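# nightly structure sweep
# worker-07 picked up a monomer target from the shared queue
# config: single-sequence mode, recycle default, output format = structure tokens
# input follows
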Amino acid sequence: QVQLVESGGGLVQPGGSLRLSCAASGFTLDYYAIGWFRQAPGKEREGVSCISSSDGSTYYTESVKGRFTISRDNAKNTVSLQMNSLKPEDTAVYYCAADGQSCNSPPNDYDYWGQGTQVTVSS
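# output follows
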């Protein structure tokens, strides 16, 4: 069964850190571009970061540059998102998704999606 499962979300104080993990089963992640997206209540889904399958290039939305880092662990078939210096505006459900083409694909074209993990940044 093809599946993506996110983990690592939780409640953290402003300025804190979390590490999200996206684990795949039924397929090999290193053949796919992997994106992290988030959706806050009442807001549209937003692309946060992506790592390409071809050369490992990474991309970040402006608001998380310098704070978030995306990385692959091909041996574990996982992709992680290290989130530092978290802010209340980072509060959202975070999803990982896999695309067989590239990080430039529209979100609706991604092949597989996880179920999401809640990140809450609050004091």
